[in-house]
Specification:
Layout: E1 4-5, H1 21-34, H2 36-40, H3 43-53, H4 55-69, H5 75-96, E2 104-108, H6 111-118, E3 123-127, H7 134-142, E4 147-152, H8 153-166, E5 174-177, H9 182-191, E6 195-199, E7 213-218, E8 221-226, H10 228-236, E9 239-247, E10 252-262, H11 271-295
Parallel strand pairs: 2-10, 3-6, 3-9, 4-5, 4-6
Antiparallel strand pairs: 1-7, 7-8, 9-10
Helix pairs in contact: 1-8, 3-5, 4-5
């Protein structure tokens, strides 16, 4: 069961941005100058620092790992969790620099997304803070496909500045939701056969009145999820594909594709029918996300109070 509710804010939005431009330039300089293998050694002291001195990240990791492993987590597992995150962050630099020879990327069920794209059909690719979304962009670039990331304006500015610091020559496409003309831009991008990607596992304060944030069971306790991404797909009548780039250690990634819903046939559907399909898609998304966390527990990168244990939900009408 789920309960729609209003929240005054989202816990992750209160976290300070730690990716200072000078630090990103330094990491890029070291990564590209020393090479990936040598730079990976720097991840050990970085991960250890966060385990020892970042209490919020450590507590969030302990909480999540305890849920997904179904037992109290140990400190070396927290270290592994944070080190895995650091490894995927480092690899973003090489993906963005188009150094694909550095990686072995296995594609599972790629036809789910590649067949529609070959037919000129744009697809909404919904992911999560699970593994590396950059692996999708790299794979799409290799195939001659186009990917644009959907995000809210403040996040778009931050991400664009961050990526410009690590890969100034990379051709990155973002569509800032909430801006005038964003929906027309998104519709045109999809009509031209592009991929529109977004991460759907975080709620945002001040989200559209047409969307709802719901408490859904996730790893044994209700957590907040928004149906906004799926209402967007329903409004645009598009196919929705779940995608994640799971990190399997060293230089190995696996791209997974699963079709979540096909809203193309919703023309003329009643509001009740659309609401039902949106809800079913959200439930399918959360169930798949939970299964992947259990399968690859160290690939989950939400280092904050994801279950919003301090939130006080109130019903909406």
């Amino acid at each position: 069961m789920s309960t729609p509710f209003k929240r005054e804010g989202a816990a992750w939005t209160a976290e300070p941005e730690r990716s200072h431009p000078w630090m990103l330039h330094l990491i890029r300089w070291i990564a590209l100058g020393a090479g990936r293998r040598a730079t990976r050694w720097l991840l050990h002291p970085i991960a250890l620092y966060f385990v020892l001195f970042n209490g919020k990240a450590r507590r969030a990791s302990l909480d999540y790992l305890g849920r997904v492993l179904k037992r109290p987590a140990r400190m070396h597992e927290v270290y592994r969790h944070i080190h895995t995150f650091a490894a995927t962050v480092l690899d973003r630099i090489y993906f963005l620099q188009e150094r694909f020879d550095q990686f072995d990327v296995l594609v599972t069920d790629g036809g789910v997304i590649h067949v529609p794209l070959k037919q000129g059909e744009g697809v909404i690719a919904v992911g999560a803070h699970l593994g590396s979304f950059e692996a999708l962009r790299a794979d799409a670039l290799n195939r001659g496909e186009r990917v644009a990331m959907l995000m809210y304006e403040g996040n778009a500015r931050m991400i664009n500045a961050t990526l410009a610091a690590v890969a100034p020559k990379a051709q990155l496409h973002t569509i800032a939701l909430g801006q005038a003309g964003a929906m027309l831009q998104l519709r045109h991008w999809l009509d031209e056969g592009g991929i529109a990607g977004l991460l759907a596992d975080r709620t945002l304060p001040g989200q559209s009145s047409r969307s709802h944030t719901r408490w859904l069971d996730f790893l044994g306790q209700p957590a907040p999820f928004s149906d906004g991404p799926f209402r967007l797909a329903a409004m645009l009548r598009r196919r929705v594909v779940f995608v994640t780039g799971l990190y399997h250690g060293d230089h190995r990634y696996e791209l997974r594709f699963v079709e979540l819903a096909d809203f193309r046939q919703q023309a003329g559907a009643t509001r009740e029918d659309t609401d039902r399909l949106v809800r079913e898609t959200l439930l399918r998304y959360v169930a798949l996300l939970e299964a992947l966390c259990i399968e690859s527990p160290y690939n989950w990168f939400n280092f904050y109070d994801f279950w919003a244990t301090d939130a006080k939900p109130t019903a909406t009408h």
